Amino acid sequence: xxxxxxxxxxxxxxxxxxxxxxxxxxxxxxxxxxxxxxxxxxxxxxxxxxxxxxxxxxxxxxxxxxxxxxxxxxxxxxxxxxxxxxxxxxxxxxxxxxxxxxxxxxxxxxxxxxxxxxxxxxxxxxxxxxxxxxxxxxxxxxxxxxxxxxxxxxxxxxxxxxxxxxxxxxxxxxxxxxxxxxxxxxxxxxxxxxxxxxxxxxxxxxxxxxxxxxxxxxxxxxxxxxxxxxxxxxxxxxxxxxxxxxxxxxxxxxxxxxxxxxxxxxxxxxxxxxxxxxxxxxxxxxxxxxxxxxxxxxxxxxxxxxxxxxxxxxxxxxxxxxxxxxxxxxxxxxxxxxxxxxxxxxxxxxxxxxxxxxxxxxxxxxxxxxxxxxxxxxxxxxxxxxxxxxxxxxxxxxxxxxxxxxxxxxxxxxxxxxxxxxxxxxxxxxxxxxxxxxxxxxxxxxxxxxxxxxxxxxxxxxxxxxxxxxxxxxxxxxxxxxxxxxxxxxxxxxxxxxxxxxxxxxxxxxxxxxxxxxxxxxxxxxxxxxxxxxxxxxxxxxxxxxxxxxxxxxxxxxxxxxxxxxxxxxxxxxxxxxxxxxxxxxxxxxxxxxx
Length: 595
Ligand SMILES: [Zn+2]
Known about the structure:
CATH class of the largest domain: Alpha Beta
Largest sheet: 6 strands, mixed
CATH superfamily of the largest domain: Metal-dependent hydrolases
Number of helices: 22
Radius of gyration: 26 Å
Bound molecules: zinc ion
C-alpha cells in the first residue's frame, strides 16, 4: 500500500519554543526568539514567525514568556562515578561556613535518610581553612551519639565522632585502650599529617581525674587518616551502577548535559559505566572517558595496557572512551604542584624550600611514555598544576606534534593540559606555545572560590592572582574548556561561573586577580562550545544552531546579562533551572513547568 505523502514525509516540528531569549553561543553570540525541534535536532532557530512555519497538527508549543535558553552545559573534568552516591548517601559540606553548620548537615542527613542507630553517617568536602574553628567529635556526638560518623576532607583527611573510636576499641576513660598515637603523633608522619587534639578533663574508671590533650576526631593527611581502622563499608557494584543514574539526574537538574570523566580506570569503572548504559541510565553524554591513568609506569607496561584495550574512540555519543591521562605533578592544596618558586612557609612546614612533586621529572622518560600512547592513536591529557609541570607537558607535546607533522602536516590533535593553573609564570611562560600548537586548557575555576584561602596560603597572593588565568588564556587564543574537578570540589557548575565572573574567595571574600575575571559570554563558551571542541563534538553540539542536536537548558532569568550584573545570582541558579533537554528529550523539568 502506498502511504500518503504527508505520512511518509512529515515536515513538522515535534516541539516549538516561542518568546524566549535563545542564547545561541554561535560565532556572533546572537540571541534568537524561538526554536523548533524535530527528531532531537534543532530545525529552526530564529523569530517566532520562523519557528511557527514548521508547526503542524501534532506540534507542541511552549511559550517561554521571556525565559532564557542556553546550550546544555559540559563539565569537562568531573570524577563522576561517586557523585550519585555522594548526593544520595552523604552530607555535602561545601557550603558550611563554621562548625555549627557541619553539625547541622550531619543532623539533617540523619533525619533525611531516617538512619537507625548504628548506621554510618557520611559527609564530604570539609576544609579546615574555611572555619573560624574546626568542628570536634564532641559537637557531633551531641546530635548523633550512637551512629558512627565519617566526614571526608576535600583532600586527604577525615573527621570522625567518638562512636568510631569506640568501635575501634578506644575508650576515653580507659588509658589502657589508647593506641600509641592517641596523645602523640607517630614518627612516620609527613608535613601534611596532623591529628587535632584538645585539652580534656577526663574522669577515669578508677575515679581519678586527668587533664590530657586527646584527639578531637580530625585527621589531616594520608598517614594520619590511615590510623582510622573503622571505615564506612565500601559501596557495592550495584550501588556504583546506580550512582551513574542518580549522578546523571543531579547534573541534569543543574543544566549539565555532557561530562568528561578524566580518570576512568580500565576494567572496573568501564564495567560500571557499561552496565549503567545497558540499564538505560546514561541520560547525559559521558563522551570522553579517558582510558587508564599513567604516572611512573614503564613504557612496556603502558604498551601492554593499551594493547589489551583494542578500542579507541569506540562508543556512541552517550558513552565513549577516548584519550589517555598522565600525571605531571600534584596540587596546590596539598603543596605538591611542581613549581619554579617554592611554596610559601616552606621553611616552617617542610623545613626546606618545597618545589613540589614532579611525577616524572625526567623529560626523556616522560617523552617515551607519551610516545607509546600517541603511537596507539590515543590523545594525551596531562594533569599539570604547577608551572614546571606545565612547561614539561607543553614542551613535550610540541616536540611530538612537530615530529608527527613531518609525515602528516595536518596532524592537529586535541591534547589538553588538565587543571593548567600556572601558564604565565615569569620563568616558565607557556601560554603562547599552547595557542600556537592548539593545546587545550582545562581549568577548574571553582577552586578559586572554594579553596581560595588554602591556595593563597600555600602559594601567596601574587601567584594566586595568576592562578587559572582564564582571561589571559582567552586573550591569547587558547581553547579553554572549564571543568569542576568534582570529587574535590562541588559539582555545581554555577559556582564555576561565579568564580569566573568574580574570582572571589569563598572564605575571605577577597578577589585574587581581578584582571583575570571574564564576562558571562566567555564563561558560557568555556562550559559549552569549547567543551564540545575538546571532545570532537563541536559539529553537532555546544551551540544552538539549526542542524545541531537539541541539548539545552531553560533558565528562569531575563537574560544571561543578569548573571553578569549580579554574579551572586549564581548561588540561586539551581532554583532557576526550569528544564534540561538532551537530544530533544526532557530529562529534567521543574515541577509544574513543561508542555
Ligand atoms: Zn581531577
